[in-house]
Amino acid sequence: MGVASYPFPPKRSTDGRIEVRFCAYEARMSHWILEPVVIRTRDGAAVLSLDGTGWDGDIPPTFPAPDRVELHLRRYPDGNTRYDLFVDVESERCWLAGTEGEASDTSGAETVLEGAYARQVEATAPDLLAQGLCPYCQAQLYGSWLHRRLGRKRVKCLVCARTWQLPPGAQLN
User: Fold this and answer.
1) What is the dihedral of CA 116, 117, 121, 124, to 10 degrees?
2) Buried-exposed string 102-117: b where 16+ CB fall within 10 A, e elsewhere
3) Domain count of the chain?
4) What H or E segment, with its residue span, contains residue 24?
5) Segments forming the whole domain that contains residue 137
6) What tens digit of pLDDT does each residue of 37-66 get?
7) Are residues 105 and 140 in the same domain?
8) How crowded is the C-beta side of 66, counted as CA atoms within 13 Å?
């Protein structure tokens, strides 16, 4: 992913302690991905950076407490599910909404987010596969006439290159 310099303005907490900047790139024509970087303004430290990860922060962040920011993120290209990540800029800890007791170091934020995304993909996989969609990127899965004739049970997504086991009756194009 190449980072482009496009003028998306940063968001600041009302007291000025936290600034969220965005590393932006155009994923598709007129579809910008805004990857957030959380800055502690008193010393300019980048407390958390999701630059280059595909986590889109195009929903404006909120600031629920003086030293905290809540990032509202979606995993590109699946923009259907929102993940709310809280960041405490002083302790440099982060957690998903409802899991404050499981806070981790901000350097592990991508791991926390990817784990939540993997659980969501696993939970929705059977329904999406039955519809002929890739559970990871939700692209249409295709099966050739030979694929159907031979009754193959596995299919590879042409977009994300993941291989999936098809349930009985899956609707492939």
Assistant:
1) 70
2) ebeebeebbebbeebb
3) 2
4) strand 18-28
5) 131-165
6) 999 999 999 999 999 998 998 889 999 999
7) no
8) 3
